[in-house]
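Hi P.,

Sorry for the delay on this. The queue was packed all week, but I finally got your sequence through. Input first:
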Amino acid sequence: MKEKQICSICGKELSKEEMHEFDGKILCKHCLDRETALCSCCGIRIWADDSYGDEYTVLCKSCYNDYYTRCERCDCLLHRDNANYFDGSDIPYCDECYEEIEDESSIRDYGYKPEPIFYGKEDMYFGVELEIDCGGEIPDNAEKLENIGNKKRDHIYCKHDGSIHDGFEIVSHPMSLLYHYNDMNWKEIFEKAIDMGYRSHNTSTCGLHIHINRDAFGSTYDEQEIPIARIVYFVEAHWNELVKFSRRNIDNIMRWASKYGIMENIKNTYDKTKKGNLGRYVAVNLQNYNTIELRIFRGTLNINTFYATLQLVDEICKSAINMNDYEFEKMSWLDFVSKINKDEKPELIKYLKLKQLYVNEPTTEEAEV
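Then the structure:
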């Protein structure tokens, strides 16, 4: 007597007429209809859980990649022919979100990139992206912060960021380190943001990203690659110290600013970096044409921590420019911090002591926000 077949999902005994084969499994009609679906585009049958569509549209992976996308802001499914894009941006939006963003003049869309204005008289410039959360994605609040930062000149603008739950991103034009200290009223901006209920350190996702102009490292692309390779090596070689400095937890680090993986020297580390194709969510993002971006730091509205972070990045970059590969590979963390000028970078020295990354001397900790 022939052994009866049973449904792989519900266990029902099936006659030959009741059997349906899919993906190497025997299914009854009920389980076939419940657990699988036909792609709305090409008609191929797939597991329902593998659909790349929404509750109304079933899509296989291939059809989604070829014909569909998602709104950057609300994540709704969009046919590529129906997506909206702002000038110079390849980021898609649905009709509703596109119209809302147009109306929210103080919070630009994520793809907004004005022509940079350089402030200061040095060769190296730092552009800041500071994420703030918990106070609402409210255009009036963004406008208040912009009014403070742009009293004299166009220093900052605010942008939507999909990784932020209830806030936005403050972005600065590139400024020299001295300009950030002496001419940019960050302290006043931070105090106003805190007063309106925003937080940056005390959130689950906010980061402080710092862009450095590539031409600070040399006049040609090949010249620039040499110190940039040293910067990547420095971050990999001193990962534990930098994670401690960053204030990020390991989960956030791996999600938003992961490491590449160190090799035995600068050249091999950078070769691995260039071949890794890990995207922009890495500690040193090399995907921008005109800048490199350090993404490892947690956000902050503490002005002294903010200054210390800028000073650390400045110190790393200048060391990479002024040292050769042999010196850089042999440099320990203690060697690195010992040569920092205490008078020029007092906030950095104090912060390093606070985190026990310098000399373990007593120091007063300030609250992070």
